[in-house]
Design a protein that fits this description.
Helices cover 44% and strands 22% of the residues. The protein has 330 residues and is α/β, with parallel strands linked by helices. The termini are close together.
């Protein structure tokens, strides 16, 4: 999965696409990009470069188009092959130490600037919250025990966060049930909403209320692309933000250490993990709202705001749409 950049994006959004490409040019002992492309396409139209056993860059020529895919930053640039000299110009500027132009911003900075400009304070004129829960691991969802949650609320120009502990869960669920807003998360229709309700001693009626007002980013991605993906991979690819812990086993150790020792630093690290997940989800949503398109496997998926609402919220009557063959793109 890639962010598809224009040449203008390469000069305005902070990235390492040109440095990564230039490293390959030097590796092939070429002086400039044009020499490098001649070498690449001497025998093949699809060339892969590896670093420590993993693909780091793909260069592809098809139907008069040059495709350059940086597998590290997950950026793809597509331009007419006869316009490849534009890349040469960017390489020259980079070599001249002008690669960091004044005003370059990260994607996260661009999205947060939009947020502070009140562009994402509501969704279709409705307020919203983004939330995540952490639970014990259980094969049966009804046996999953709620541990803590975090919620983010847009407040003026800030993202206001609130921790929800076990003793506050029922009040938090009551709050979500009572207000007319969108509830945002990743896979909450099938996990977070029912688990939160069951742990607050609510059942199907309350789950249905939460699901009706939910915008589930996992469901949106699945229905848009017919592919499945986890939040961390989506966030890494689109906004370059990662989880604070690499696996569920790590947070489980933190929580058990906190219970065993009462060490507040373990609890704070666990809370930081959950809070960061909420921020990741909010940024991914901002990316969807800002760009309204996703690129995967050389295919572009465009959507409107109505598409975003409908695919995130309305569970289809015919379940066949959700019974797609799982395609791992992790």
């Amino acid at each position: 999965m890639y962010k598809r950049f224009t040449v203008q994006d390469l000069t305005t959004i902070q990235n390492d696409f040109i440095p990564h490409l230039y490293a390959l040019i030097k590796r092939e002992r070429c002086q400039w990009a044009n020499d490098f492309f001649k070498l690449c396409f001497q025998e093949w139209d699809d060339v892969f470069y590896f670093s420590r056993g993993d693909i780091c860059f793909r260069i592809h020529k098809k139907d008069g188009q040059l495709h350059l895919a940086d597998e590290i930053d997950k950026i793809e640039v597509v331009l007419p092959f006869d316009k490849k000299s534009v890349i040469q110009s960017l390489i020259i500027k980079y070599v001249a130490k002008k690669e960091r132009m004044v005003g370059q911003k990260t994607i996260e900075q661009i999205l947060m600037d939009e947020f502070k400009a009140w562009n994402y304070q509501t969704i279709m004129d409705k307020p919203y919250l983004v939330y995540d829960i952490e639970t014990t691991v259980a094969d049966d969802l009804k046996a999953a025990e709620f541990l803590l949650a975090y919620a983010m609320y847009p407040r003026w120009e800030k993202m206001e966060y609130r921790a929800v502990m076990r003793e506050n869960l029922k009040d938090f669920v009551d709050e979500m049930l009572a207000f007319d807003w969108y509830i945002i998360w990743f896979n909450q229709i099938w996990f977070d909403n029912p688990v939160s309700c069951w742990n607050a001693w609510y059942w199907d009626k309350e789950i249905e209320i939460l699901n009706k007002k939910s915008l589930d980013l996992y469901l949106f991605f699945l229905k848009l692309t017919k592919k499945r993906i986890w939040l961390n991979k989506l966030s890494e690819a689109l906004v370059w933000v990662q989880k604070t812990l690499s696996s569920g086993a790590e947070w489980e150790v933190l929580w058990n250490e906190y219970l065993r020792t009462g060490d507040q630093s373990k609890l704070e690290e666990f809370k930081k993990y959950c809070k960061n997940d909420v921020r990741m989800t909010a940024l991914v949503m901002f990316y969807f709202l800002h760009y309204k398109r996703i690129f995967i496997d050389d295919e572009m998926y465009e959507f409107t705001m109505d598409d975003f609402i409908n695919k995130s919220n309305n569970l289809v009557d015919d379940d066949k749409e959700l019974k797609v063959q799982e395609q791992s793109i992790f």
